[in-house]
């Protein structure tokens, strides 16, 4: 490791009763010779016998990562019982995220990679007032609007609306929101993925993209005019496209990222195509943030069955992005 490399990546512990502790150890074994990262969490929550290197600061990580998982200790009030979230640990999970953001914004960490949280557990145990990780990170950063991208080698997708009820999507998906989503996505692809002139595909809101107004008129009344206006501004756009025909292999070859109207319209395709290797990237933050594209998996927590592929990819992507950031 040399001085030209970025600062170590901060990996947050996530829900300690989920698969996060097991994943942290597995990704250390896979990546200890490839990149620098450290876990923020309680070392007592890690699997018994896990090799641990306690650190007091991220700058100690390069010197100890070969010997054990570097852990910046953040003590929790209760032990972790696999599969059973303890409300007593909820505030600790939240505080770890805030601690990682502070390290990233001060340059001590090159990026933040977050292991899965359990939103209901955080709400029940600490009154967590955010729909998910993404919204909380935006709050911590003081950013009004961010974009959640799910990325893999096969597909990049962005939901314009995220954690809201489906019945609320038509009102929430406004021309201003869609424009901002496209602009942030395009800027992120240029700055963080090295794509000079991104090609973006935009999904329609309605089945068959409204089919000429027969199944909804949002495409006709404002989506088509908006996309035409942005094309005139130099943005390379396809759409609005029927969502049911834009994710097969030949269609995916025509664009670098797909902008979708709502959460499941975006996440179902990527989780079907590449469930274990999808990475969540938050665009629009003043620091780099990635995470694995799965949840806490309480049903297999503590069994040794957790697949580390997505977390490995999330750390690798964070490391590459951190290295490309001035």
Automatic annotation (TrEMBL):
The entry's keywords: Cobalt, Cytoplasm, Magnesium, Metal-binding, NAD, NADP, Oxidoreductase, Pyridoxine biosynthesis, Zinc
One Gene Ontology molecular-function label: cobalt ion binding
Pfam families (alphabetical): PdxA (PF04166)
Annotated EC: 1.1.1.262
Entry's cofactor comment: Binds 1 divalent metal cation per subunit. Can use ions such as Zn(2+), Mg(2+) or Co(2+).
Binding positions for a divalent metal cation per the UniProt entry: 163, 208, 263
EC top class named in words: oxidoreductase
Major localization class: cytoplasm
GO cellular component terms listed in the entry, alphabetical order: cytoplasm
Keyword Metal-binding part of the UniProt annotation: yes
Pathway as given in its UniProt record: Cofactor biosynthesis; pyridoxine 5'-phosphate biosynthesis; pyridoxine 5'-phosphate from D-erythrose 4-phosphate: step 4/5
Subcellular location: Cytoplasm
Cofactor(s) listed in the protein's UniProt record: Zn(2+); Mg(2+); Co(2+)
GO biological process, one term: pyridoxal phosphate biosynthetic process
Catalytic activity annotation: 4-(phosphooxy)-L-threonine + NAD(+) = 3-amino-2-oxopropyl phosphate + CO2 + NADH
Record-listed substrate binding positions: 133-134, 271, 280, 289
InterPro entries: PdxA (IPR037510), PdxA_fam (IPR005255)
KW tRNA processing (keyword) present: no
Quaternary structure and partners: Homodimer.
Protein family per UniProt: Belongs to the PdxA family.
Function: Catalyzes the NAD(P)-dependent oxidation of 4-(phosphooxy)-L-threonine (HTP) into 2-amino-3-oxo-4-(phosphooxy)butyric acid which spontaneously decarboxylates to form 3-amino-2-oxopropyl phosphate (AHAP).
HAMAP family (alphabetical): PdxA (MF_00536)
NCBIfam families: pdxA, PRK05312.1
Miscellaneous section: The active site is located at the dimer interface.
Protein name: 4-hydroxythreonine-4-phosphate dehydrogenase
UniProt source species: Marimonas arenosa
Protein encoded by which gene: pdxA
């Amino acid at each position: 490791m040399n001085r030209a490399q970025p600062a170590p990546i901060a990996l947050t512990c996530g829900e300690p009763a989920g698969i996060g502790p097991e994943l942290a150890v597995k990704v250390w074994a896979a990546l200890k010779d490839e990149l620098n990262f450290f876990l923020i969490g309680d070392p007592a929550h890690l699997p018994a016998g896990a090799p641990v290197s306690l650190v007091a600061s991220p700058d100690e990580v390069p010197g100890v990562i070969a010997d054990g998982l570097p852990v910046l200790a953040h003590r929790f009030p209760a032990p972790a019982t696999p599969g059973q979230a303890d409300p007593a640990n909820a505030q600790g999970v939240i505080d770890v995220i805030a601690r990682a953001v502070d390290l990233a914004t001060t340059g001590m960490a090159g990026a933040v990679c977050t292991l899965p949280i359990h939103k209901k557990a955080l709400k029940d145990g600490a009154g967590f007032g955010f729909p998910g990780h993404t919204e909380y990170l935006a709050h911590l950063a003081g950013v009004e609007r961010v974009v959640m991208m799910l990325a893999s080698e096969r597909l990049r997708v962005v939901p314009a609306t995220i954690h809201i009820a489906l019945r609320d999507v038509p009102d929430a998906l406004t021309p201003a929101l869609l424009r901002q989503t496209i602009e942030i996505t395009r800027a992120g692809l240029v700055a963080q993925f090295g794509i000079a002139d991104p090609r973006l595909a935009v999904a329609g809101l309605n089945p068959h993209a409204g089919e000429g107004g027969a199944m909804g008129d949002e495409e006709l009344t404002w989506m088509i005019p908006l996309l035409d206006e942005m094309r005139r501004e130099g943005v390379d756009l396809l759409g609005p496209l029927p969502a049911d025909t834009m994710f097969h292999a030949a269609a995916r070859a025509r664009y670098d990222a797909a902008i979708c109207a709502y959460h499941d319209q975006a996440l179902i395709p990527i989780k079907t195509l590449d469930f274990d290797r999808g990475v969540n990237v938050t665009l629009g933050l003043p620091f780099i943030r990635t995470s694995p594209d799965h949840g806490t998996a309480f049903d297999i927590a503590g069994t040794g069955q957790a697949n580390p592929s997505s977390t490995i990819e999330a750390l690798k992507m964070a490391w590459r992005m951190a290295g490309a950031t001035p």
